[in-house]
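User: What would this chain look like folded?
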Amino acid sequence: MPAELLTPHDHVLLAAVTSLATTTGSQAARVVLDQGRLFTPAPWPRSGAPRRGAPGRCHRNALRVARLLPGAYAEGYALAEDGTARAHAWCVDVEGNVLDPAWSDGPVLAYLGVPMAWEFVLAFQKRTLTKTHFRGVLDPLVQARDAERIFRSGVPLYGMRDVGRIPPALECTAEPTH
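Assistant: Here's the prediction, encoded as structure tokens.
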């Protein structure tokens, strides 16, 4: 995708996640930059969608909704209205529209995350014994060999879904100058 097709919010989010990966050494940010997709925010559907979940439980809510609808569970970063990139999880339908069952802190301006099959995420959750307090696939505190394997090699291809916009190479993520 040419850099000129990115929204200003996409540029800000890519720069923020790049900063997390390089300055703090965030392993999750590196995985998201390597395998992530960009998603455009969308309002929650007025009808036909499952009920939204409680704020603060984005991973659990996103996995629950992803199991009910065709599409993907996505985990990565959301750009908040105040310009900060926050670790987050959400759902994506088959057309790449965001279904965010847990965000409550004002509008989300952009999403960058790894779209995963809910079956992969559920199996990961069971292996890591995090059913009661699921913190996601990319959480560094998950106690399992799978987490370290994902940080080394990324989410396996069989666990991913092909939805969202592929971001440009890192050299194109800087804010455009005019």
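The chain has five helices and five strands. If you want, I can go into more detail on any region.
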